[in-house]
């Protein structure tokens, strides 16, 4: 298996202006830019542009895109994911140009526009303009923290699956992913956050690369992601008018799942509190109320999370309602 990791990663103010140079270095001459209506203003390039919603509403026919030798995604999660998906369908390289930093999809080989998520090729280049990203809604940048702290429980879950189920495990990917999260948590807790955007983007890019190296979402997705997916299912099931973000849900999930790990490993004592404080510092939600869910929904999500996918985690065969309620109460989520 050939692992694709970015050949170019540029994270700086004004980075978007270097797209032309990156294309030249990669010997790519005719890109198609995929973006959204709100992010088209950043696409001041002499290249063809299409909106991601148009791509998603049609059947992709390779012959319609034969003239393009790469896809460039400019925007948030939907634009980046759609660009990745189109590049995968066409068999051409993808270049990621995020305009916000709410999750590690900006660098990972995972596409989440369809359920379940699936693996494609990782971006060949990432051009993250921190000048643009700093101007994105603060809530999105807070959600990015939630996606990064989840690496902590994801790696703990992965190691648990290795010990209890003999699952394939990569120590190097695990250490890389865990270190990225720990460094960002320590930075957030011990600084004035003046460099937060830059540090967050670097962490999200690193997290995406860890997934590409492992060829699995395991380094960055565990029980906390199962909890988030369970919340999404319940939103649909009960037609809930809740606009919580993926990273926000993962952050709250990480508080609870790290607490479960703490109860089994004394060396982890205080981990959930540290994670909770780091989320609070960047104004990310840490309670059901802040997420916008009734307490009963949080409890139900905890009881069904283990069924979301065939992935062994600290949830093992699941929590009953009483155990779920106790967990949410003891961590202050409800």
UniProtKB/TrEMBL annotation:
Cofactor list: Zn(2+)
Main location: cytoplasm
Record-listed glycerol binding positions: 104, 147, 225, 246
Principal EC category: oxidoreductase
Lineage: Archaea, Methanobacteriati, Methanobacteriota, Methanomada group, Methanococci
One annotated GO biological process: glycerophospholipid metabolic process
Pathway(s) the chain acts in: Membrane lipid metabolism; glycerophospholipid metabolism
Sites where the protein binds NAD(+): 77-81, 99-102, 108
Compartments (UniProt record): Cytoplasm
Keyword Membrane: no
EC numbers for this chain: 1.1.1.261
Organism: Methanocaldococcus lauensis
Cofactor note: Binds 1 zinc ion per subunit.
Name of the protein in question: Glycerol-1-phosphate dehydrogenase [NAD(P)+]
Pfam hit, one: Fe-ADH_2
